[in-house]
Fold:
Amino acid sequence: MSTSASRRRFIAGATCPQCGEVDKVFTQTRSMRTSDSEVASEQRERGCVACDFLETIEEVVTKNAPADVKSGEGGDWSPVKLPE
Ligand SMILES: [Zn+2]
Structure:
C-alpha cells in the first residue's frame, strides 16, 4: 500500500508567490489517519510545480472521516483551460 492519498488540483490563473509563474500553482489535500484512533485530519497545501514552493493552507481535523470522500464540495471547480 504505497499509494499517496494526496490529490492535486491546479488553480487557473493563479500566480506563484515565490517564482511568479502563472498556472503552476496547485492545491492538494492530504488525509492523515491515526492508526488506532477515530480521529483523522486533512491538511490542505498549496504548492507550485515550477519551483519548490509549498505551504500549508489549513488543517482540518475530522472525526470518523469516510475513507472515500466524494469530491462534491466546492462544486464549481472546472478543469484548467489555457487561454488561446
Ligand atoms: Zn513557483
